Amino acid sequence: MAIVAGVDFGTLSVRVSVVDSERGVLGAATAEYPLHRKREDPEYATQSHDDHMRALAAATREAVKNADVRGDQVEAIALDTTGSSVVSVDKNMKPLGEYYLWCDHRAKGEAAEITEVAHREKLEAIEWCGGVYSSEWGFSKLLHWLRHNPEKRSEFASAFEHCDMVAATLCGITDPKKVKRSICAMGHKWMWNRALGGLPPEEFLVKVDPLLAGVREKLDGVYATSEEIAGTLSPYWAEQLGLKAGIPIPVGAFDAHWDAIGAGCRTDDMVNVIGTSTCIIGITPSPNLVPGVCGVVQGSVHPKRTGIEAGLSAVGDIFNAIATRAGSDVQTLSKGLESYRAGQTGLLRMTWDNGDRTVLVNPNLRGMTLGWNLQSTAQDELFAAIEGTALHTRVIFERMAERGVEVKRVINGGGIPQKNDVLNQVYANVLGCPVLVPSKSVVSLGSAIFAFVAAGAFKTVEEAQDKIGSPFKTFQPQKTEKAIYDELYALYRKLYFAFGEPGRGTFAEVLPKLIKVAEDRNKATA
Predict the structure, then answer these.
(1) Each residue of 62-111: pLDDT tens digit?
(2) What are the CA-CA distances from residue 47 to residues 9, 86, 134, 162, 184 (Å)?
């Protein structure tokens, strides 16, 4: 028997679960931290490292208390985080500013430059991240930071993903060169590929911008999968968390990837990790490169297999925004949605409120709702938004299938599916296949699984999944509803590419032009 702590850093809060290898979750707690936004710049989203660490300490102490165990009984702690959330540091690992959070899209210009140079220079690594580099990813954000913080460039020693930064902090590591970097994070977001020599070459980076000179060397170090140990808990942070010093901390990963493991993901499964956004995470036996799909990385989800990642840039965020505009909340606005049927609202919702992550990889898009009439309600729009996220997911699955990615099971994981049967049934009807949903929350369970492996309680990820995983509730597609969604999907797909794919025609110019007009006006009045 062993007891471990599994940690999941989400967009707005951190959850810590204390888990027993025989009895499962003994206790859990969450603590919130602020997300810094600017109304005049909707692309802006940052968070503070100090806020994260304070919340982690508070949640860990509360979780241990709720579990009714002693802190010195916890044998390992493992952490996943949002990604790509990037922070620049000095030579002592001190942050030089706040994290560019995953949903910060200020670097869309830098992303376009990286994509253009990558194709011009025939950089093979760009094909492993779907052919388009994203504003959500590491090099884009780092280049934006370097361009906009000239006074701090002399102090810049390196940059880290949140999962690596928090593990290094807990281990007391103060030298950037001694930090182990997550292959999950660096493979999916920084074009790291062992078979291609690691990071993109110096010559390529300098052609993007001379400001990137020397960055490759500063990002160098040990790159590892999550069965390896990042270090051990330092005395200082052991006291802050209420745990014992010296317990192992495995190399971290992204929340969605470990949430997929916690949800029971095996080879040829695809997990929709549905929260503020959706990450679509799968394990595939062989690397199939899929245009527009943002990462195929050996060892990223499961240390011994190939991980594949896609997703939607906003889901729960959209539901919350609709409810907020209506002066309500999602729980209240959702009452009665179980009586809604496919097509009854007459609305078709393009869920691009925060851009498109997959398959267009286009941040210059915004949400659209077609079909309004004078009787349309906020509740109608909420249901249409649920349908829209499912239809968008079907676009992604269709693209994967075209490139030979086999999907044997679809699992809805993340924070929303356990609380929203309407969403799960819509997904089954839209996708035309059974959708499995863990019967209990699996948030931070993936972290606990890797903590157990680090502690030696289980020899493999699969052994831990079998022992502490959750049974599934199954949502079967309904024949009549599926037929209507097949009709709606044909319309959705036409709109998706007509308005979303650059170069498709006049419709593709509409949303980027609206964004530019608004940006110019905001700059003029700032």
Answers:
(1) 999 999 999 999 999 999 999 889 999 999 999 999 999 999 999 999 99
(2) 12, 10, 20, 10, 21
- How many whole angstroms separate alpha carbon 378 and alpha carbon 117? 44
Residues 403-427 have pLDDT tens digits of 889 899 999 998 899 999 999 999 9
Among candidates 98, 97, 102, 60, which has minimal Cα distance to 82? 102
CB 351 within 8 A of CB 388: yes
DSSP state string for 429-457: HHHTS-EEEESS--TTHHHHHHHHHHHTS
- Residues 113-163: pLDDT tens digits? 999 999 999 999 999 988 899 999 999 999 999 999 999 999 999 999 999
**Average pLDDT of every residue of the chain:** 95
* Residue 439 CB-density burial (10 A; 0-12 exposed, 13-18 middle, 19+ buried): exposed
- Tell me the pairing of strands 223-224 and 3-9: unpaired
Query: Which residue(s) pair with 297 in the sheet?
Result: 307
Predicted pLDDT at 525: 80
Whether the CB-CB separation of 474 and 45 falls below 8 Å is answered with no
Which of 440, 441, 442, 436 shows the shortest CA–CA distance to 424? 436
Cβ–Cβ under 8 Å, residues 90 and 176: no
Answer yes or no: are the C-beta atoms of 287 and 425 closer than 8 Å: no
